[in-house]
Amino acid sequence: MTGLRVVVEADGGSRGNPGPAGYGAVVLEEATGEVLLERHGSLGTQTNNVAEYQGLIAGLRAAAELGAARVDVRMDSKLVIEQMSGRWQIKNPGLRPLAAEAAKLVDGFAAVTFEWIPRERNKLADALANRAMDEAAGKPVRAESPAAASPAFEAKAPKNWAPPSLDSATRLILVRHGETALTAQGRYSGRGDVPLSEQGEAQAMAAAGRVAGISRDVAAVVSSPLRRCVRTAEFIAAELGNVTVTVLPELIECDFGDWEGLTFAEARERWPAELDRWLDSTAVAPPNGESFQAVAKRVRGALETLKSAYPSGTVVVVSHVSPIKLILRDALAAGDAFLHRLFLDAAGVSTVDMWPDGGVAVRSVNETAHLR
User: Fold this and answer.
1) Does 231 count as an annotated binding residue?
2) Which of 58, 87, 73 is nearest to 116 (CA)?
3) What tens digit of pLDDT does each residue of 13-70 get?
């Protein structure tokens, strides 16, 4: 279990009490308020209290998926908070199994606190519960999640159609490594340190030419520690002629665990349920592997380091599919579905500019003309 501390905000409702019911829950990182996971669902005909307990259970399960150690539960249900805190008896026999299920989940964390909050501070979970009830009733709902529309998700960068000045921008030239034997076979290639193939070396040389075409005034070339990236980076540094390669461990590929070296079809055959959960949530890791949320966190840290070190320079970043996809997802303010819709070719090149005030401009994605 990690030391992650999260806040679970949960709610439930019933239109009729009892009546058509639904629940909602969000898990937020305690330090930043970033929404890490959302859960919502309809419950058929139930009471408000049953729906509120189901929201709590869904939120605790989501926190467990993230590997959280400490959980601060916040709900506007005085009954659920007081009962789970042990201050009120559970007189309704229908609620006792739900409270027991929640208590069992609580035992899986290092520490859990319960806090009552007014309804106006529980808007995200309330909106998700109402969304669940609307969906069950066949009413139109927004495709956007309530959390994505919250102030915590508002763009921090100023909105402006005018071409921004590059004087204070850090330009990232993102390069995926050249082809390996596993790349050509469509196999998961994570922490295995496979070399470039002959074709991959040719691709890396071509990518070096494209990088030089974008800019020869490069402040740094940084690379994942795996040799398929280091070798690609060496070709780029040699083409530029005035930089050396620096290894950043945070740029390493996702750890695919037990799926390493397998094709998607082979993983699907052996781990169908686990693969479905992995595809559904960036918080879920492959068996004995690493989640995309964990990858995103370390890659964001690497980018902040680069922005600080090169506040008005160009940096070539040589990495892998997962880190580069996650960088582009964040840069484009896209959802997680983006990760499964974007294809990145071996030795493909993308360019992103970043400003100190949080501004981002994506100049290109997966350029491949140099490979033809």
Assistant:
1) no
2) 73
3) 999 888 999 999 999 988 888 888 999 999 999 999 999 999 999 999 999 988 899 9
DSSP character string of 211-260: HHHH-S--SEEEE-SSHHHHHHHHHHHHHH-S--EEE-GGGPPP--GGGT
- Check: pTM over 0.85? Answer yes or no: no
**How many other C-beta atoms lie within 10 A of the C-beta of residue 76?**
20
Q: Which domain holds residue 103?
A: 5-153
What are the structure tokens assigned to 11, written together? 């709610």
88, 82 contact by CB (below 8 A)? yes
Q: What is the CATH number of the domain that holds 84?
A: 3.30.420.10
Name the residue type at position 69.
A
CA angle 309, 311, 315 (to 5 degrees): 70
Considering the domain boundaries, does residue 367 fall inside one? yes
Chain centroid to CA 17: 37
Question: Can you tell me the distance from the alpha carbon of 328 to that of 105, in angstroms, rounded to the nearest whole number?
Answer: 35
Domain count, the chain: 2
Residues with catalytic roles: 177, 253
Structure tokens at 241: 């002629």
